[in-house]
Design goal:
By secondary structure, the chain is an all-alpha fold. The chain has one domain. Helices cover 87% and strands 0% of the residues.
Amino acid sequence: MLAIFRGALQTVTGYPCSGAIPCDYKVIVLVSTLHFFYRKQFDCFLISQLREMRD
């Protein structure tokens, strides 16, 4: 929740690229989590989370 607030605040204050980073991260995490719950494939979820942590 804090990441979305921070991203929105940065976008409003004139830094849209910096604001997009935390918002994009939250979207990626949400999509990968929903994909895991829907498909029950832990391997895909693990790889996506490790990639996000590495970047």
